[in-house]
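Run folding on both entries below.
>entry_1
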Amino acid sequence: MSKKLINSPANAVDEALAGLVGANPSLRLLQGHRVIVRADIDTVTEQNKVTLVSGGGSGHEPAHAGFVGKGMLSAAVAGAVFASPPSASVLAALRAVASPAGTLVIVKNYTGDRLNFGIAVEQAKMEGMAVKMVVVGEDTALPSTESSAGRRGLCGILLVHKVAGALAEQGATLETVAAFAQQTANAIATLSISLTPCSLPGCKPSFNLKEDEMELGLGIHGEPGAQRTKLKPVDEVVATVFEHMTQQTPGYCYFKPEAGMEVALVVNNLGGTSNLELLIVTNAAIRYLVDAMKLKVVRVYVGSFMTSLEMAGVSFTLLNVSLQSILEWLDLPVGAPGWPNASTVEREDSHSIPSLTAVVTDQACFSGEPKTVVGHNGHTPIVSGESSCFSFKSIVFFFALYLTTFPSSRTCVSHDFYGTASVLDSKVETVSHAMKIKSSWFNLLNLSCNSGYSTRHVAGTVLTLPTTMFQRKGKTNQGIFD
């Protein structure tokens, strides 16, 4: 049985929903049901705006309850972990957000969700409510045939929530919101890569993956994917994902990219992937889409959106944003706690900025009268002198300047961090040695710089440093430049 921070499996979903509402005053919990509703829902219906309802099994947090708020969902219905919510709760949600303008229900393409939400929609219509339903299935892992249940609904549904929510917020009619929601759903493709299984509270993992294996196209409930392969470097993984996602063989043909096409990219943490890995994957994905596929990546959303409990892995979603006004709808501010802020700055070919280059106006620039160091673009002065205190950035800058100005043999400084500075005859002859020196100086990050200076001659240059910057609690650290 896997470890979980819970009180009991039976209460896990209810306590999680209570935590969400407790942390977000803009949300309310519908009594007697696992339904999260906007706190200002009365204002929304009084303004005669279309309302939106979605939901599904728990265990995919923040979906779907985390996307309830202004500009997105009006209500979300939660089932047990990996189980569709009952139709009675869906109907209760529809009643709670009923609007004269009508309600759009957005569900993922799973049999249980289509059945239970569909029953509730028909019951609501019988009660006189104007309700439409859009089904989202954008998985590209497996071929779609007439005998299959169709493509599975995955993280791409959140983009449908966003577009539909923006239109509803702007006062569009139910027919318009539903039409664009379906059009958006048809323009999305998603594919996942999984490294580990997940486990329901109180249960063992639902399947096994070997230590050196990964699975392409695994479902968010642990459904089988397209293939299992040996774990590869992330660049190869990303290439495999997008090649599979965009293949045009019979039974697939889900997403046909064209050079210059503008797309939005979602890199979704399936639950157990570190932020470090997530950003490495994001970098690889952007580079592949831009360099290999010649696409324009105009929006990137990175984070945990549609998880699968603690499963390690990611899913990639592409949305063709050439549709009318879709970028405007994606960029409209929202009040949902789970939605990220994506940069709207136009992406450049280069992701980096020029490194800082410096010209020293005086060789003995570290002591005496204030001297000027000219930075990038020639107008960044850094002033030093006996009467001023170095900032850490200045110290690191001067040290980096010293290393680059005198690349040959030189004398290095060692400190015991108790105020004593000594000069060691140590030559900088290798890259690894230089990295040691740099690393040791960066260890000074959490040291204070208040007053007092210790002057030492270093390779013919006077280096003036505050003695208090070497004061640090703990044991003496000798020979850090060895």
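>entry_2
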Amino acid sequence: LPTPPSSPPRVGLHPVESTITLLENLVAFYHQERMWVYRTRAQLEMSLQERDFSAATADDEEGEIEKEEPSSVEETSETSKWMKRKKAFGLKLEGIATTRGMPRGGIVKQRAPPPIGKEPGVEILEMFERMMQARMESCERVTRMVRNASGT
């Protein structure tokens, strides 16, 4: 992981020049961070694809070896036992609102469920990349504002 930029030396630099230099160093740093995210995400996605491919081939091989079908009688009795227990506990699916306990004003907005199929590591890298992008763009805007204000 790259290290953050250091402040420019104060020897002989005008305050505006040192501010612009620091902002340009920050832009370069955030760009390095984004490149690191791209490389890391590519490696992670490749390893996930390899894992999924190896798991799929292992499942296919197991499916060919095991040709016995499980007895449906056992599954039915286990399913019905589970349904009875579920009803007794009053379990509900997460994210599905019930009418009980809702405010009288109407439906309460809930957070959207996380996207299906994405690994947490990939999501974190994408969030980090968006954060670095936003910071880089912010530094670029501030640099333009400083240059416009100082006339350089």
